[in-house]
Specification:
The chain is mainly alpha-helical. Helices cover 78% and strands 3% of the residues. It is built from 13 helices and two strands. The longest helix is centred in the last third of the chain and has 42 residues, at 204-245. The protein is globular.
Length: 318
């Protein structure tokens, strides 16, 4: 049993990351938070629109987009990667809509066809040109968030600000939060009723593809740190947890940010204890928070749902 579960050292797990090794784990926690909060803010709208699987599709389809963008431009510059991801995200959305509307194939089946095919194309491209693209299977699947602290610092005015990935992710998260605030009404109305949105002068098609573009940018920004598979959980878990606690979108946004912070910190501590991949531990911590909300939510939790059924039994006993 001791071989399966490592010995628990409270100081090494909870104290040392905040004191002795904070220079390393502080950046990892911040990066985990920024990735999760950016994914969570977008994920709230994916859940409301019942498009969680589209997020799954785009998170996989950015792989061939990144690979093709590098092979064409021969550069790993962030703008090149963003361009490839954006193109892949738009192509993915268009393919899903085209297959669904112009055939008898249902939307969920169309999503499965598109994302699995595009992901397979990306894997083939990386296999063929791995030495040029500088990506491997572990990076694609799990990311490398543990190496964030080793990156060179971005300097502004001669002052080191943050590692490059953290700085880029901060900008992406800030832009996503700003756009959510500026276009809150448009996103809200188009998410619940596209007909009402059109009657109010809001183009639901433009809002849909704008959301897909934002999703593509978030995914490619998080890709290097958490990989193509784990980013799916980070897109869904914060919003799904908040959705169990409240019916109001503003509160969902706030709760998804809180969920992101807690899952990042708890995930790093869990990874230190179990000596496992940090990104995976963050997702497990987020899933644990979802489980708690599922059980103890005052309105939608398991206890709240079973309690009315138990009241007549308790009354009969008394």
């Amino acid at each position: 049993m001791n071989d399966f579960i490592p010995n628990f050292d409270a100081r090494a797990v909870f104290v040392s990351p905040w004191t002795d090794t904070f220079a390393t784990y502080g950046w990892i926690m911040l990066m985990g938070f920024l990735v999760t909060v950016a994914c969570g803010l977008i994920g709230n709208y994916l859940i409301l629109r019942r498009m969680a699987l589209v997020g799954d599709a785009i998170s996989h389809s950015v792989l061939p987009g990144i690979a093709i963008a590098f092979l064409v431009a021969q550069s790993r510059h962030s703008l090149v990667m963003f361009g490839g991801a954006l193109a892949a995200g738009i192509v993915t959305t268009l393919l899903i809509e085209t297959i669904h509307r112009r055939s008898r194939v249902k939307q969920d089946a169309a999503i499965g066809i598109v994302f699995s095919s595009l992901f397979a194309v990306g894997v083939i491209l990386i296999s063929l040109f791995a030495s040029q693209i500088d990506l491997d299977a572990d990076c694609v699947l799990y990311g490398e968030i543990s190496f964030v602290a080793l990156e060179p610092l971005v300097t502004i005015g001669g002052i080191g600000i943050a590692p490059e990935s953290v700085f880029v992710m901060f900008l992406v998260a800030a832009v996503v939060a700003t756009l959510v605030i500026l276009f809150y009404k448009e996103l809200l109305v188009s998410s619940f009723d596209s007909g009402l949105a059109a009657s109010l002068g809001i183009n639901p098609t433009i809002m849909h593809y704008s959301l897909m573009c934002a999703l593509s940018v978030v995914v490619v920004s998080a890709f290097r740190s958490v990989g193509a598979i784990l980013v799916i959980a980070m897109l869904i878990l914060p919003g799904a947890t908040a959705f169990l606690i409240t019916y109001r979108l503003p509160k969902m946004m706030v709760l998804s940010v809180v969920h992101s912070a807690l899952s990042s910190v708890l995930g790093v501590h869990l990874a230190i204890w179990l000596d496992c991949a940090v990104a995976s531990a963050i997702v497990v911590a987020g899933a644990g928070l979802f489980l708690l909300a599922w059980i103890f939510s005052p309105t939608q939790g398991l206890i709240a749902r079973f309690r009315p059924q138990l009241l007549p039994i308790e009354a009969a006993r008394t």
